[in-house]
Design brief:
Blueprint: H1 7-18, E1 26-30, E2 33-36, E3 49-51, H2 57-60, E4 67-72, E5 78-83, H3 113-125, H4 132-138, H5 150-158
Parallel strand pairs: 2-3
Antiparallel strand pairs: 1-2, 1-4, 4-5
Helix pairs in contact: 1-5, 3-4
């Protein structure tokens, strides 16, 4: 990921890597500062707020091992740690962004957060579960919760997002 990537663009790439559409509010938390869209007088999580459109990734994550939390869909409670592994010049012939690795299939957007996703997986895995048929139809055909395809995540990260520009309303 390029250091000069604006935080809203980075959020779109994170959403894409998860297979999410990006129609929910999100925020980044670094130390005691929240980077967000919307009402900055009302900083989320009790921290001072900064308009994320004014900040790049390299300005908030400045060195290896630097970390921030990306909160997505506040009602569902998705929290992701973003950690810098290394910083260096762009490599010739390597396009960015790129997903190098991952584990397990990403949960569906709007599945109820981490707890809802666990409930979904349990219901789909148990043919006797009362919601098995209904929830199985909600998942894509052949869904495998243990599968992950970095090439697909990379392709998604490079495609235009369905909700790109939605933050312009703020």
């Amino acid at each position: 990921m390029d250091s000069d990537t604006p935080l809203p663009e980075f959020a779109s790439q994170l959403e894409a890597s998860m297979g999410w559409l990006g129609g929910h509010l999100h925020a980044f938390r670094v130390a005691n500062v929240t980077y967000q869209l919307g009402n900055l007088d009302d900083g989320l999580f009790g921290h001072p707020a900064v308009d994320e459109r004014t900040v790049t990734l390299g300005e908030v994550l400045t060195k290896p091992k630097a970390k921030m939390c990306w909160d997505y869909d506040f009602g569902d409670g998705w929290e992701h740690d973003v950690v810098v592994e290394s910083i260096g010049p762009a490599e010739d012939g390597v396009d960015s962004p790129m997903c190098l690795t991952g584990r397990r299939a990403c949960p569906r957007d709007d599945c109820g957060g981490p707890w809802g996703y666990q409930d979904l997986l349990a219901a789909v895995a148990n043919p006797d579960h009362p919601e098995h048929d209904e929830l199985s139809e909600w998942l894509p055909e052949g869904f495998d919760p243990d599968a992950f395809d970095p090439a697909q995540a990379t392709a998604s990260m490079r495609e235009p997002r369905p909700f790109d520009g939605w933050d312009d309303i703020w």
